[in-house]
Amino acid sequence: MHYLYSTPLLKSMEDWLDSEDIDLLTTGVLALGNFARTDSHCIYMVENKIMNKLLDVLAKNNGVKDDVRLQHALLSALRNLVIPKPNKNAVIQAGLVETILPMLEIHQPPVVFKLLGTLRMTVDGQEKLALELLRNKTLIEQLVHWSKSSDYAGVTGESLRLMAWLIKHAYLGRIAYALPRKGDAPVEHFADKLPPEDYDRSSLQAFIAIEGTVEAMINMLTSQHLVMQNEALIALCILSVVYLTNSAAAKSDDVNLAEIYIKYEVGKKLAELIRKSSDTMTKEIVENLQNFNNLLRTSGKLVTHLEENNINELLKSIPILTEYCTL
User: Fold this and answer.
1) Taking 50 as the threshold, does the pLDDT of residue 326 lie above it?
2) For the chain, how are helix, strand and coil distributed in percent, rounded to 5?
3) Is the pLDDT of residue 176 over 80?
4) Inter-residue contact 276 to 222 (CB < 8 Å)
5) Rg of the chain's alpha carbons, rounded to an integer?
6) Average per-residue pLDDT in the chain?
7) Which terminal Cβ of the chain has fewer Cβ within 10 Å, N or C?
8) 3-state DSSP call for residue 281?
């Protein structure tokens, strides 16, 4: 592709975006998606408005009755283009999100998978956009639905990952300093490090208010993929810092996170996670698991719940922790 990039082929494929022949148009989009495999190529394609042409084509073909092959090709190309950090703002400003959100009505698994992946790449590092999407009731309800009912594993996984990424990129920058460090005594640590109560929690409040959202994050703990386990832990840590360790915020926003955690058996899921994955856990996962455990223990009800599920003893059985102790 590096060689072809320097030939007239790229311009020819761009010209095919104006074709009314669906096969020619789809072929052109697929070729451009293959060109968009390196950061330098992607940045060039955004700077030279090829991305805008792709968006224009998608805007005309983002309905339930439009060609699935073309939709899949367009989303694949746009997903690649939005990955480089320098491209994100330009693609967002060009209207990517507004163009693809109507596609939530499409239920073809290959298209949905690419749609969710494109959104996930777009919100990476974009706090404002993540806050907006967390408040989007239609989007979040659809993600919860797909996370529970999809027969396509890729759609299930991307639905869960997008929810976790929205939480992370909307709030991690605001509360990261309040996360417990390894060895912290939770009560002592949080006494002086609670997040300020005046930051905007409305997006997270709206997310939690939608039935099944917190349950989805808890269920994600037992994913077979380590990266998803870690993403679930990060999202749950953020929820806990905002609403479990800050009673004033919880009362003000009418969020009883401890009861929600107990209702959806967070202790049972943590126990299942440790039993299933302790041998393969990375240092990052173990540290986030310890963080989450410390956060949960700021609630008396959850201390009892964790003890009922033998979490402390299970934590001691994780090989990587045993190695640290031995050293």
Assistant:
1) no
2) 75, 0, 25
3) no
4) yes
5) 22
6) 90
7) C
8) coil
